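USER:
I wish I could look at a protein chain and see how it folds. I am handing you a single protein, as its sequence and its fold in token form. As I understand it, each token names a local backbone shape. I hope you can help me see how the letters and the tokens relate. The protein I mean follows directly.
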Amino acid sequence: MVALEGLEVTHKVFGNGIVEKVKDKYVTVRFANLNKTFVYPDAFNGFLQAADETVAAQIAEDLAEAQAKRAAHEAELAKEREVQMRAGTVIAGAQTLTTEPATDYTPVPEDGADE
């Protein structure tokens, strides 16, 4: 990640600001009358814009890398879902669903005779 502290940025709604803190994947920006925290680098995809073109180019690289990782992860999940569907089982949250119908049928002896 590029050094962002002190970077001048512009936000679509909040206007001009300065990056005050970067912690993990979060960036805190001080605007005229408030501080806001954003997810890095996602916030630079349409919300924040860096004033420094060199830093903006590095942020764009970080953003492209994050999007590629996300796309690869989504492709992996889609592949796992396809394999599960072919096997007849789908994982839905904490439950496992099968494509075979469940039955609550318990055979009852005919004519009241015990088996």
The longest helix spans residues 53-87. The two ends are 73 Å apart (CA to CA).
